[in-house]
Fold this sequence. Notes:
Elements: H1 7-25, H2 29-39, H3 46-57, H4 76-79
Helix pairs in contact: 1-3
Amino acid sequence: MALPWGDARTQFQLVRAHVEAEIGRGVSKHRIFEALLAEGKISMSRASFYNCAAKALNPMPKSSSGGAIVPPPQAEQERASPTKGPLLTSQPEGNGRFQMADEIPNYD
Length: 108
């Protein structure tokens, strides 16, 4: 029998601590569902129980930017490109990324 909207989630929140403890002990979700159903603590379908358990035990990170994916902040050293750092002694000073072949000494 279908429950009114939101009742399955409410029922799960009442037994959530018990479910987390049992899963931590290694008990399967199927056995937990059957035990809670037999005790009368829940009256939801198995699919609803599994969905609630999955959402509760594997929460999605909340995004503060309205759903846009933002890369995590990096340290200043990681962000700096290798060309911005000090040049090696064997590295010629250049203005851009590439150097014309006729400007490279001993290029034949």
